[in-house]
Amino acid sequence: MEERQSRLSNMDWKRFRPYLCVRLIPQNSMFSNFCHVLNPGVYSLDFAELMDDRYIDSESTNIRRRCILEARDRGEVIIACAHLNNPLTGGDSWDNSNKNVAKEILTDGSATQQKFNTWLDRLAEFVTGLKDSNGNLIPIIFRPFHEHTQAWSWWGNTCTTETEFITLWKYTVNYLRDKKGVHQFIYAIAPQMDNQKTENDFLYRWPGDDYVDFIGMDCYQGLSPTVFAANIKTISKVSKMKLKPCGVTETGVEGFTDADYWTKQILTPATGRNLCMVVMWRNKFVGANENDNHYYSVWKGHPSEKDFIKFYNSNLTFFSHNLPDMYNMAENVTVK
Question: In the chain, N or C terminus with fewer CB closer than 10 Å?
Fold first, then answer.
């Protein structure tokens, strides 16, 4: 413990652009990636720009490929979302102005379906080319259409009925798996649960047990560890009921300054629950002449710096180098 604290206290901390992850693999373990020296147990990224109309050249694709391969070489778990543009209107993910987008995607032969299929084709080509040093495909936890229970996105409850969303989810999985031969995805559903929710809330718009492998939740509860703890308890119950692993796929407070944030708001609510991971949202890259409070983690001089060191040194937290071999099957375990 003393060696770990000394190493952390003296390193050159810096704000880091990729999504910030708290990692839990053994029960109740956690990790947060906040600098270039400490690597996460979970590496999180967004696939959208290599799929939709923002796909212009190979630069962003190559960056993502390099980061994924490096994370795999370190033995980390990889998870990805996709803030896809609206394929009907041409707007961004937040464009919920047209209620026909899911209908058009699901209409055989429509221009919107053809465009959406092209986006899935690009994703399939990218991920099936991701292989480790032994030539094995790299598994990725993929959470398409995240926060599907809210209104902000074109796949949310403003634009799609429950039936339309479920059909869209199944269409996407079937297309990638059965038509494009993508078999390395672990499909994660991630409802948005900012307030205290029930088991029925978690299962709203559930696509079916055969179409979900991992149960997540995006929980932006603010500085309310009581709500966070209650939702973690509920997702753990759903996980047990569905016989599927669960984790917090997004959380955090933008621009927080609380000195005890990590132990009070993250570690304590998660302790004693069967979570696989907790993923913090990102710290935006800030240039030398910028002043931006879009951050969800810690850096040198932040008010929570000392508390993060305490969080890091907890026997419940795991960083990349603490992970067991995540890519070899455990003894006496068979997957059917």
Answer: C
CATH code, 2-322: 3.20.20.80
Active site residue 76: no
Q: Judge whether 147 counts as a catalytic residue.
A: yes
42-46 and 21-23 strand pairing:
unpaired
Q: Of residues 49, 76, 147, 164, which has the active-site annotation? A: 147
d(CA 76, CA 96): 35
DSSP 248-299: EEEE--TT---TTHIIIIIIHHHTTS--SEEEE-PPPP--TT-------S--
Rounded Cα–Cα distance for residues 185 and 176 (Å):
9
DSSP readout, 128-140? TT-B-TTSPBPPE
State pTM to two decimals. 0.87
Q: Which of the following is catalytic: 49, 76, 164, 250?
A: 250
Beta bridge partners of 187: 142
Identify the sign of the CA torsion 121, 125, 130, 131.
Answer: positive
The 10s digit of each residue's pLDDT in 222-261 is: 999 999 999 999 999 999 999 999 999 999 999 999 999 9
**What is the per-residue pLDDT across 29-77, written as a single tens digit (0 to 9) for each?**
233 334 444 677 899 999 999 999 988 767 888 999 999 999 999 999 9
Going from N- to C-terminal start, the domains of the chain cover 2-322
